Amino acid sequence: MKDALFGGVNAAVLTAMRPDLSPDPARMADHAKWLLANGCNGLGVLGTTGEANSFGLHERKQILEGLVANGVSAATMMPGTGTASLADTVELTLHAKAQGCRGVLVLPPFYYKNPSDDGLFAYFSEVIQRVGGGIALYLYNFPQQSAVPFSLDLIGRLLKAYPGAVKGVKDSSGDYANMKAMIDAFAKDGFEVYSGSDEYVQRILAEGGAGCITAASNANSHWGGIVYAKRTGAEADAAQAVLTATRKAATSVALIPGLREIIARSTGDDGWRTIRPPHLKLSQAQADAVWKAWEVAGALPLPGLGVKAAAE
């Protein structure tokens, strides 16, 4: 897809924390800069992998402001701003716009289950009208987590009612048929479809999607960048095989602490293991297993990071 605002590989960036569990934007910014230098075209900050819903409203603003202050271009970032509260969603979206972000990723209101399409349309209508333009909204379809999926009918209604306001979707459902249906229905009008699953990157690009926003891109972005640049051929196929294998490795343990373990060992920075409850650090056996799985996938050492000895 041409002219996609976030076309290519976008990492769902881990949020660095201090020992007291407060956000550490400076360390997070270092990681973000490494990602942009190693295959990423953009950064999905404060999403599921970034533990956004474990942070308060003011903390989320602090993280975004801290990233900008530490030299991460706001234009590269797509912050998650969707909450269960209409007012908070609007406030976070306006804040992202004020920082210079070009787009935000918006969960549906997820506390009340089984809302109707009419109810969701009313919610997003209020968000769009209160934000007032100047920043693109990307829908976050993750029904396994939110329990609130986006139907094709709802997306079509929003696109018709608010041309240009809703720019695309991150589909983390893992259902490629659903991603393809969105591409077939809306990509011709510039709607950007991003896979939340690494195994579909090459395929979604070939079929008119815009790219990916994935958790494993925190550590496999080098190979994602190859797939995005080459698209087809032996080099792209080999890189896609690494993406698929690393996705499997990443999900062999709890995803977020597992990715923190890979970055912690690769950088020699134990602070990356710090995580907010209810998430927990991996056991030593789990940590060793996920590291071995990434090795078997052919992704270690991570380009540009260097590796501290696995035995710590």
Automatic annotation (TrEMBL):
> Known Gene3D superfamilies for this protein?
Aldolase class I
Known SUPFAM superfamilies for this protein? Aldolase (SSF51569)
Q: Which UniProt keywords apply?
A: Lyase
Pfam families for the chain: DHDPS
* Name under which the protein is recorded: Dihydrodipicolinate synthase family protein
Can you tell me which family this protein belongs to?
Answer: Belongs to the DapA family.
Q: Tell me the organism.
A: Belnapia arida
